[in-house]
Specification:
Length: 310
Amino acid sequence: MISHIPCQVEHILKFLNQYQCKFILDCTAGEGGHSIAIANLVGKSGKVIAIEVDPFYFQKLEKNTRDFSNITCVNASYIEIRHVLGNVGINRVDAILFDFGLSSYHLEGSGRGFSFKKDEILDMRFNPSEGEPLYIKLQKLTDRDMELLLKKFGEVKFAKTLAKNLFASKSKIKYTSDLVDIARKSIPHRFLNSELPKIFQAFRIFTNNEYTNMVIGLKEAIHVLSRSGILITLSYHSIEDRLCKSIKNVKGMKMITKKPINPDEKETLENPRCRSSKLRVFEKEEIDEESLNDWYKFNLNLFPSSLLSR
């Protein structure tokens, strides 16, 4: 049973059908919502490779897709695209989908501190077997590091004050309630509700090295995409969308959607989490490798190295 309703499914299927895509890579499969819809579209003559990095969420993906012979599930990160495809005997795909949104499962059921509305341990890792939880990472940050990541990854107001107070109390921070309490003392009440989601977003991006992984994943995707294949991205905040939009600067990646596609009113009412989603589509032509490498280096250098693992 799928509890997370995927966004903009009809728009995605429209482009896949228009470009007659048969071999599709879903890089952020989650519970399988998009993958199942795509598998139904391509039928037995097509193939969907569904990648999910979270080992617990992956179990849900396998269970939900077990009746689909045209879906192959892989527990891996999308930065390993080429390795994943090599293991299933595929060199090129017709379409690649990235949905960079946070799932209902992570917010409501993972118990890892993704939501400021729940009192949980401040872990925030998508894969609990890799890296360190946020509350441990915080011990290694300076107040300047905290200020930078709040500004760069969350565009948080009052970042300097919040960072100063977080740094002073970092040894006492272990649960989401600890982080929320410090935010309450640092941010005027009238701004708190709008800033808390951005604070948690910033620390989640930092904990999972999301920005670097996005840059690497998109570059890898361009490599394995067939000529005339399409790259589809779903972003939910300005940092993600700026990166996705910048793909147009790679020579040989043609922007199909001149403006991002937003969900229609009906979908927004039925699935409010899709409200901020922006869909972009690019077609691969002849790629200029130098241009792709320049794009890669430029985007990695947008943020201080202290906030990124490369």
